[in-house]
Amino acid sequence: MNSLQLSPKQLQEICHDFTNKPNGINTLLSIMLNSLMKAERKDFLVSNHCHGNKANGYRSLRGLGIGEQIELAIPRDRLGQFKPLLLEVMREQQDMLNELCFELYANGLTTRQIEGITENIYGKKLSKSAVSRITESLYEDMKAFRERPLEPHYPIIYLDATYVKTKRETVSSEAYYVVLGVKLDKTREVLGIYNAPTESASTWDSICQDLKERGIQRIELAIIDDLKGLDQRIEKHFACRIQKCVLHLKRRLLSQSKTSHRAELAQDLKDVFCVGKHDSLSASTERAKACYQKWKKYYPQALAILADKDKLSYYLTYLHYENEIQNMIYTTNQIERLNKSFKRTLKIRNSMPNVDSVLTLMSKTAIDMGETTYRYPLSRFADSLLFS
């Protein structure tokens, strides 16, 4: 039987007819794909001279169309040897759908929100359980990221906490500790993300032990917040210098002062903690004492640290290093920026359903940062002896 020959104008009219009907594009797409698969089977049977093999009907399959699913008739052969190329394309579609679910979940959307989005785009509403199954592999990938081997030497690490509302029996704000490392090539990577209910020596030992077991042997400088006992545990495990965050110290001291005193006290604290000005440890210590003497009648306990040489020394470690890098190492600002990225991802939800969900979303954010911002070396460290 001769095939029907249509002119370009006739084809144009047919397409125009379909596209003006409700769901017409998907109907036209279904006809075209079914025709292509039927022609592909015919060519297969002619090209592959296998005795006794011939066309053997069709099986139904639903595919992803434009805003809705489409009905497809997958051609079969008697010996089961024919596999249409379209099936591979459909598998790729499903992979793209899975990846979309990963990205949406990793950006803080709930399973219910993902259901609605996938239905709008693909015409295929994924059930909550289906989305959960898809995201389960994301959990596994992110767990593998947190447990990956690390390099033996990181000249600098930053450690700080961010707080996330997490559901257990009730919803409460829990601490998640993040370790950011600067590598010998001056690029950065997130080394670990940890959840711990309390600030304790056992918590710090557990974090340090994990970093060691995953390969870290040497750290030169650890920049941390003033978390109780953390400095001692890091010194014990890695025998490195400790720099406590000056910015957090200033905030804490100013928060305990009267509003009328804050501008003047802030300037005095700025003078104590100079950066990049060829300052010396002894000069800074003397300025700290002078600041304490000036303000002690108002805040004897709050500002006592300024007169305690041993405690103050943890905030002045940056003075042992080059002027050019001091503003990069006297605060935990590097990790504070990362924490802001975490919060952007997590803020879509009022609270997270469990700890694993928080760790998964934070890990995905850390990976994204590693593939973008953290790929580039920090130029300020270019000539620092810390990296020699």
Model description:
- This protein has 388 residues and is an alpha/beta fold.
- It folds into three domains: 1-83, no CATH class; 86-146; 150-387.
- 48% of the residues lie in helices and 17% in strands.
- The protein is built from 14 helices and seven strands.
- The protein has a five-stranded mixed sheet, with helices on both faces.
- Strand 1 and strand 2 (69-77) form a beta hairpin.
- The longest helix has 24 residues, at 24-47.
Write the layout of secondary structure elements.
Blueprint: H1 8-19, H2 24-47, E1 55-64, E2 69-77, H3 85-106, H4 111-122, H5 128-146, E3 153-167, E4 171-182, E5 188-195, H6 201-213, E6 218-224, H7 230-238, E7 241-244, H8 246-255, H9 262-272, H10 281-295, H11 309-313, H12 326-329, H13 333-346, H14 355-371
Parallel strand pairs: 3-6, 6-7
Antiparallel strand pairs: 1-2, 3-4, 4-5
Key traits:
388 residues, 17% strand, two-stranded antiparallel sheet, alpha/beta, 14 helices, elongated, 5-stranded mixed β-sheet, 3 domains
Order of helices and strands: HHEEHHHEEEHEHEHHHHHHH
State the separation between the terminal residues, measured CA to CA. Answer: 81 Å
- Per DSSP E runs of 2 or more residues, the count of β-strands stands at 7
**Helical/strand content category:** alpha/beta
The shape, in one word, is elongated
Which sequence of strands runs across the widest sheet? 5-4-3-6-7
- Helical stretch count? 14
The averaged pLDDT comes out at: 85
Strand content: 15-25%
Helix content: 40-55%
Low-confidence stretches: none
Rg over C-alpha atoms, rounded to the nearest angstrom: 31 Å
Describe the largest sheet: 5 strands, mixed
Number of domains: 3
